[in-house]
Each structure stands twice: as C-alpha cells, then as structure tokens.
Amino acid sequence: MEILMAFVIGILFMCATYLILSKSLLRIIIGTGLLSHGAHLLLLTMGGLKKGAAPLLGEEAPSYTDPLPQALILTAIVISFGVTAFFLVLAYRAYKELGTDNMEKLRGTEGND
Amino acid sequence: MINFLLLPILIPLITGVLLMFINKHVMLQRWVASISAFVTVIIAAMLAHKVHTEGIQTLNLSNWDAPFGITLVSDMLSALLVLTTSIISFACIIFSFRGIGQEREKFNYYASMSFLIVGVNGAFTTGDIFNLFVFFEVMLMSSYVLIVLGGTKIQLRESIKYLLVNVISSALFVIAVGYLYSVTGTLNMAHLSERIASISADGQLGIITVIGVLFMIVFGLKGAVFPLFFWLPGSYYAPPAPVMAIFGALLTKVGVYSITRTYSLLFYHEGGTIQALLGVMAVLSIIFGVIGAIAYWDIKKIIIYNIITAVGVILAGVASMNEDALAGSVFYIIHDMIVKAALFLLVGIMIAITGTSNLKQISGLIKNYPGLAWTFFIASLALAGIPPLSGFVGKLLLIKGVFDAEHYWTGAIILMSSLFVLFSVMKIFINGFWGKPLTYKGEEKAPVRQLMAAPVILVILAVVYGVGADFVFPYISQAANILVNPDLYIDAVLKE
C-alpha cells in the first residue's frame, strides 16, 4: 500500500513541478495546491498505513492508527489553506493593477543599470 | 516563574490581537506597539540573564513530559537571538512612526509587525521540529502581509514571487518532517537527536544524510544560501524601509539559526558529507554576495547583497564545527542583525531625502546631513569589521576557528570578502555623501531628525557591542558550548 501511495505522491509532485514552471499565474497556484496535497499525503503515508481503528477511544479496538500524523496534516492543511487564499487574492489584485497574469511580463528592472 | 521563557512570544501575540481592535487610532497604536516592544526587550534581557545564571530553561507546555508534548527550550543562543530580535523590532517600530505613512499604519501594519515578532521569537525558542514549522509559517504569513501592504505595483509583482518561493519551501519542510518522522518516530528535537544517534550507530547513515540535505535545502531557501538566494534581491527591494530592515535583519537569520541548530543537534553524527556541503555553499554565498554588492549602483541592492555575504560568513563558521568558529558565528550573527537593520534604516532615510535609490543621482549629502553621514560611516566600518567595532571580534574568532579546522581557503575567502564588503559600502559613502551637494525633491519634507533616532540607537549598540566584547563574551561562549556539546541540550530537555 505504501508503494502505491509513493507512486501517487510522486505523480502529484511531478504535476505540481510542471505547473509551477509554467507562465500563467493561475496554473502556478494550481501547482501549489497539488504540491500541498502531495506533501499531506506523504505525511500520512510516512506515519504508516497499518490497519487499525480510527483514533477514537470509544472504538475500544485492540490497535489504533497513529494519531500524530493526522494532527500534523490537519495543521498543515489549515496553514496551506490560509496561504492559498492569500495567494489567490494577491493574484487577483495583481491582475487588476498590473493587467497581466503572465509571469514573463512580471519582470523587474529597477536598480539593474 | 516557570513560564518566563514564554513571555517573549506571548507579549507580542497579545499586543497583535489588541492592535487589530484599534486599527483606526494611529496614535494609540503607536503607543501600544512601542511600549509592548520595549517591555519585550526588558523581558528578553532578563531571560538572557536567567539562562546565564541558571542554565538552559525548558518548559513543557501543559505539563506533558518531554518527548510527548511541545517543549520550549531557551538556551543561550536562543535567548541572545530573542533579545536581539526584540531590540531590532523596537527600533523598527520607532522608525515606522515617521517612516511608513498613515495610510499603511491604518491597515494593521503594527499588528502584522507584532505577529512577525511572535513567529521569529517562537522559532528561536521552540524545541519541537513541527512547532518550528508552525512558527515559520506565522512569521512568513506576517511577512507576506508586510511585503504587500500598500499595494504599489512593484510590491504586488515581487510579493507574488516571494510567496511562491516560500510556499514551495514550506511544502518541502513538511515533506522533510514527514521523512524524519517515519525514520525516527518522534518530533521533539532532543529526542530526535538521541534516535538519530542510535540509527547512525546501527550504520544506516544514508537516509539520515539524505534527510539532512533536504533540511539544508529547506532552511537554505529561507536563509538565502547559494544557490537558493535567487528570490531575495528582488523581494527585499520592494517593501518600504522599516519593513526591509526587519526582513533583512531577522528573516534570513531564522533560517541560519535553524541550520545551526539542526546541524549541531541532529545531524552531527555523520560529519563529513553534510559539513563539507555546508562549507561549499557558505563559500559560494560569500563569493556571489560580494559580486552582487560590487556590481550594483543602487544603494538598496548593495545592502541586500551584503545579507547574502553575511549568511555565508556565519555558515562558514558553522561548517567548521569547533568551539571558536561557533562562538565567532554566534557573535557575528548578533552583530550582523543589528548592523544590517541600522544600514537599511539609514538607506531608507537617504531615499526619503533624495527620492531615488540610484547612487549616480546622489551626491554631497554630508554638507546638509552630517549626522546621517557619520552614522552611516560608523555602521559601514562596523559591517566590514574594523577593530574597535562590532564586526571585528566575531570575524576574528570565526577565522581562528576556520583555520583551526584547516579550511584555509574558506578563511582566506572570508578575509578577502571583508575588503569587498568595505568597498561596496564605502562606494555608497564616497559617491553619496562626498562631492557636490545637489537639491532633492524630498529635502523639505523628510523628517530626518525624528527618523535618525532608531538607527542611532542601533549604531551605538553596535559600537558598545564591539567595545564591550569582554562583557558579552561569557554569554557567547556559553551559547557555543551548548552547540558543541549537544548532550547538555538533550539532558536539559529529557531530564535524565
């Protein structure tokens, strides 16, 4: 199971890298979304995918899954959610002010003489 | 009081929350922000004294024992960096009164500043690797707001790049923590160190080295180490002077601190590979930093490239891993934070007067602004490391350590770099302050006298820090001692 997850995560990272290297700002933001999905799935996989009950003491199971990676992922999800929301608004604002979403045209030349 | 080491995090946090409620009352905000920053300075100084007399302070949050809960650890290095952070943030807040403009102050400028300090102080104090990630995000999120606040075109353009780079490096941080957790099964740094020691003893060095290099990439991106500094010159160019000062002084240094902490505490077992890599990256950072600093005729760019050089110098000391070199690094990192903040603020005043950052359009400022000129001159000499001033002792110790570790080329390059650093700042002094005075558009309006307060405080501090090296040295050597003997740290946290 871990092997399969590793392949899936690898593909996610591959797509994210490809999208982040493109010119359009929206494709870049979609790339960062895929990148954080990959990172969160990796965290889950690296905690171990052994079979066990959901980490609720009411289940009274002989063994539970590891609760720590789930807490880490929950934290990482809300952080990346906040950052992505900020990034999207920034992209919207930049599009309005600068009139382009092409990264090639967002080059700076100040102080380069 | 056992919760004492929490106060440098807690005070700015509460202040930040308060400031959001009074964001339309500019005068009240200024008072609250500056008083809270001043209180933080005093608390941090008391904390440093406490660590000096009573040893490493640890606090298990909510009374969970060490590897299971989050532990905050304040050793001498953390305490000194927290103190420096507090002083610099206080200076930048004072500078902001006249230096940032009401339109920014009304939109949660001081609140963002407070949260930035929460993140930086938290990152310096935490003893848990995932908690370090969270504090990094607190710091970065506030820095995103500060870099874009005001919404001018250049700020929008550059903050997109800054944000993208940091989103990627944060994802890499999560990935690195995931790998480390799967190998060791713990997140507490002291416990991690023990587990990594036992894994290394079993001979499974490969995976530890890979994770170590991954952490180097993560922290290198945050700390602007060659070849990962490409985002820094553009991003730091965009925001206004006080924001630039607090970024240049604090943000990269958090990355440098994290490298120092992880490589002295976690990955010291395997020596060799990682250390050699760190040494090479440090030397190349120095070289590329000075190339940039010499190449530009833009006063902001010159100081920005000097950040990269300084990061390289500090990491060259860390790569040597003996007590002298580490003491030099600690001494130098504190000096560099103070002097970089002062230089950015002085450059900000020059830009406020002249309305341009192009050095070719500035000359003769010394005639009308002698105070500014001589403060800048002293700050430049301190940056280059001229003997009575603060840069000297750190670099001396550092080079002694580097030569003891038989890295002769590194030592030679550090010595050479001082010359080029001196040349780059003297270029500003000679071309900008000497020569024929010109008239500038901002000359009437710029409140130079009020703005000078903050950089003068910092420069006086830099001079005192250099002249009083005998007084501060016991603190520095205590910090270096813990870096060389990680067992002290582990014993303090795990209470064995």
Automatic annotation (TrEMBL), chain A:
Keywords assigned: Cell membrane, Membrane, Transmembrane, Transmembrane helix
* GO cellular component terms, A-Z: plasma membrane
Q: Where in the cell is it found?
A: Cell membrane
InterPro entries noted in UniProt: CPA3_antiporter_subunitC, NUOK/Mnh_C1-like
Identify the main location. membrane
Query: In terms of domain of life, where is this protein from?
Result: Bacteria
Q: How does it sit in the membrane?
A: Multi-pass membrane protein
The UniProt transmembrane annotation reads 6-21, 28-49, 69-95
Among PANTHER family, the record links this protein to:
ANTIPORTER SUBUNIT MNHC2-RELATED
Similarity annotation: Belongs to the CPA3 antiporters (TC 2.A.63) subunit C family.
Q: Could you tell me what this protein is called?
A: Na(+)/H(+) antiporter subunit C
TrEMBL record, chain B:
Q: What is this protein called?
A: Na+/H+ antiporter subunit D
Q: What is the lineage of its organism?
A: Bacteria, Bacillati, Bacillota, Bacilli, Bacillales
- Where in this chain does the record put each NADH:quinone oxidoreductase/Mrp antiporter transmembrane domain? 128-420
Q: Which InterPro entries match?
A: CPA3_Na-H_Antiporter_D (IPR050586), NADH_UbQ_OxRdtase (IPR003918), ND/Mrp_TM (IPR001750)
Coiled-coil spans are: none
**Top-level lineage group:** Bacteria
Q: Which organism is it from?
A: Bacillus mesophilum
Keywords for this protein = Antiport, Cell membrane, Membrane, Transmembrane, Transmembrane helix, Transport
Q: Which GO terms describe its molecular function?
A: antiporter activity; NADH dehydrogenase (ubiquinone) activity
One cellular component GO annotation, for this chain's record? Answer: plasma membrane
